[in-house]
Amino acid sequence: MDEFEAKLQDILNTPWDAQDARVVPKTQDVKQKDGAKRVEATYLYADLADSTLLSKKFKAEFAARVIRSYLRIAVDCIRAKGGHIRSFDGDRVMGIFIGDRRRNDAVEAALNIQWVVDKSLNPLIKARLEKQSLSWHVSQRCGIDDGSTFIVRGGARDNSDLVSIGSAPNIAAKLSSIRGESGNVTITSRIYNFLFDHNKTAKNGESMWKKRGESAVGPHIVTTYSSGWRRTP
Predict the structure, then answer these.
(1) In the record, what terms sit under GO molecular function (predicted)?
(2) Helix crossing, 60-80 with 102-116: angle to 10°?
(3) For the chain, which has fewer Cβ within 10 Å, the N-terminal or C-terminal residue?
(4) Exposure of 142 by Cβ count < 10 A (0-12 exposed, 13-18 middle, 19+ buried)?
(5) Residues ≥6 apart with Cβ < 8 Å to 186
(6) Where are the domains of the chain?
């Protein structure tokens, strides 16, 4: 007990050595004991839907192939738009975007993810399972929000990872877990209000987004927009 108390006293009372960051930090960039980075960033969470049912309906080997395929799509699309991967949580991945274009880059990555899922992954799965008279359709949602974030290093020496503290990562994660709502991308007004015209409106003049209005996302009240559009990477 004394050992735990000493460690906790150290964590609770050591002053932060916090610095403003202009790049997305890696784990080694943040000191274990007292390091912290402040960053203005856009967070994108990409979450595969129904993975529990997938694992129940199919053998683990096939379910693993589907999950790995989805995560690879998400990672490649996020990186292609300048995002940085900083966390995996089962069938969900988190990307961080910074810079003046960060909100638009994140939205474009999300539109690309849905395109690859629809045009590549699902047809491949369909062709594979039809031979066995089986079927599975991959569905997913990306949640995106923007804001000030305090990034620290959690865990223990040689076994630690970065932890993002702030409303943006929390809200983005919860938006990605929305089920039963049309569309595959959900964003907040903090994203929508900064989108370029080509990320708001299609070439035919149709709006790409449906305003959902104010809703409670955890302890936060936010205005959200959802989209079912997709775009070629």
Answers:
(1) cyclase activity; phosphorus-oxygen lyase activity
(2) 140
(3) N
(4) buried
(5) 141, 142, 143, 144, 175, 176, 178, 212, 224, 225, 226
(6) 16-227
Check if the beta carbon of residue 227 is closer than 8 Å to that of residue 112: no
**Alpha-carbon dihedral of residues 86, 89, 93, 94, nearest 10 degrees?**
-40
Tens digit of each residue's pLDDT (9 = 90 or more) over 24-82: 999 999 999 999 999 999 999 999 999 999 999 999 999 999 999 999 999 999 999 99
- Alpha-carbon distance 200 to 111, whole Å? 12
Does the 16-227 domain belong in CATH 3.40.228.10? no
Please give the Cα distance from 52 to 69 (Å, whole number).
16
Q: In this structure, what token pair is assigned to residue 184?
A: 């595959």
